[in-house]
Design goal:
CATH architecture of the largest domain: Beta Barrel
Number of domains: 2
Distance between the termini: 51 Å
Shape: rod-shaped
CATH class of the largest domain: Mainly Beta
Largest sheet: 6 strands, antiparallel, barrel
Order of helices and strands: HEEEEEHHHEEEEEEEEEE
Strand content: 25-35%
Structural class: alpha+beta
């Protein structure tokens, strides 16, 4: 009997503990999310293609400066591309001179072949006239010589005609090859020229310059940094469409949902509070090494009001889920 009473007491105590835990969880404060303001219409500045997949940042517009469309925002070191372009242009000039010389030689050879063909035609005409004289008028020996001369002149004309055609074909083939080579050199020169021009990245829209974060060191990019192709080194942020990018700790993820109302406070505007809602949450998590090895979900918070005149991209924000 005593054991039954003890079991009953234990069950009551366990139930009370669960109730107290549930009540404590229900009363726990809502999640606080850390994030920053960003432009949803930002132009991404990406390291362009290079010959060795690496580049050096030569110049950057100071972070936070406003730029207009067409302004150079980031310039990468183009010394190697400029050297390659100059070398290619010198090669093009050399090839053009060699081509002109070879074509001139072929044109001269064709002119000589045409002259020899014309001479062979005249020779054949004379030989034909002599070959038509009857044997009885000239005698057997002279007649035979004229017939032989006619055959030789006929063969010589055929050879001269073939030589003329060969020379004509050689000239046409060389001109064709020259056109192809010139086109190839033109495409290659344009490729180097475009690469050199791509090292100057211009703003495609007005906005504010925001530096990117190095994916390995987590420090902001700056002039002189060695970067790799496809790195996101900066952006031109349009302030007409701002939102807040936040990161949700894996522990807090079950406690938030798309559509939740939020309150937003800015470190730069301590006396100002904004209202908004959670619009999207990433389906997978990732590590943010600067915050430890916990898993975080990237999410987007939108404002309920127009904040383009008050906020700027890059401002840090504290978001409270209501």
């Amino acid at each position: 009997m005593r054991n039954a009473r003890d079991l009953c007491s234990s069950l009551i105590a366990f139930a009370a503990l669960i109730t107290a835990t549930s009540a404590g969880a229900a009363e726990s404060p809502p999640p606080l999310l850390t994030g920053e303001v960003y432009s949803r219409q930002a132009q991404q500045i990406i390291v362009p293609m290079t010959t060795n997949w690496r580049a050096s940042i030569s110049q950057m517009v100071p972070e936070g400066d406003e730029v207009s469309a067409g302004d150079v925002v980031v310039e990468f070191d183009g010394t190697e591309a400029a050297r390659q372009l100059e070398t290619h242009q010198e090669t093009t000039r050399t090839e053009e001179a060699r081509t002109e010389r070879e074509i001139a030689q072929l044109e001269k050879a064709l002119a000589q072949a045409k002259f020899q063909f014309e001479q062979a035609q005249v020779t054949l005409e004379l030989a034909t006239l002599k070959a038509e004289i009857p044997e009885g008028v000239l005698g057997a020996i002279e007649y035979a010589e004229n017939q032989l001369a006619f055959e030789e002149a006929t063969k010589a004309l055929e050879n001269a005609d073939q030589a003329r055609k060969d020379a004509q074909r050689s000239l046409e083939d060389r001109r064709e090859q020259a056109a192809l080579d010139a086109r190839k050199l033109e495409v290659q020169e344009q490729w180097w020229s475009d690469m050199l021009e791509s090292f100057k990245v211009r703003a495609e829209q007005p906005g504010y310059v925001i530096y990117g974060i190095h994916p390995w060191t987590r420090s902001k990019f700056q002039e002189g940094d060695q970067v790799q192709t496809s790195f996101h080194v900066a952006e031109v942020a349009d302030t007409s469409d701002l939102a807040v990018k936040v990161w949700i700790n894996g522990v807090d993820r079950p406690r938030v949902a798309v559509g939740d109302k939020v309150s937003i406070r800015m470190d730069a505007l301590p006396g100002r509070q904004f209202e908004g809602r959670l619009e999207a949450v990433s389906s997978s998590s990732s590590n943010r090494q600067e915050w430890g090895w916990a898993d975080y979900f990237e999410a987007e918070v939108v404002f309920d009001e127009d904040v383009s005149g008050e906020l700027l991209p890059g401002m840090s924000a504290l978001v409270e889920v209501l």
